[in-house]
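Let's practice the habit of predicting before peeking. Look at the sequence and jot down your guess about where helices and strands might fall. Then scroll down.
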Amino acid sequence: MEWIHGLFGHEPDEPQEPPIPPGPIVTQVTPFHTYPGSVIDITGSAFAATLNGNNVKVGGHPARVIRASATNLKVIASLDAQDGPITVETSGNTGTSPDDFKARPYPLPGSGDDGPPAYFEGGANLQQGDLPSTGTLKVLVSLVNPTDE
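Done guessing? Here is the structure:
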């Protein structure tokens, strides 16, 4: 077998460690300049196809994943989200957005623009008739069961 070593210049195949699965790759974030508490679409690859398989942060604050596939995530940014990167972590690997999230300031009352989102989870802390300072309320209802994946 010595002649095989000399002929090919290397030892026979030795056991290799299994390759690390590729981490998530974030290619696009829409919109990246919006209000904290807004819905954000994240496009890329190697995301977990389950809701709880993705750990997403927007501007350093955890975001709630409301839809997940291997190539697209829909998240709700935290009301505390600040300017900064959007990261997606799956199985110990992290991908970062090509553009940083830019938190828009909420409009002033009477400006005619949509106001801040009324964001809550768990028990209802809003009362019938509650309106934001702009006088109108657009509603996104997301019903998520704690066992959804």
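How did you do? Residues 118 and 124 are 11 Å apart (CA to CA).
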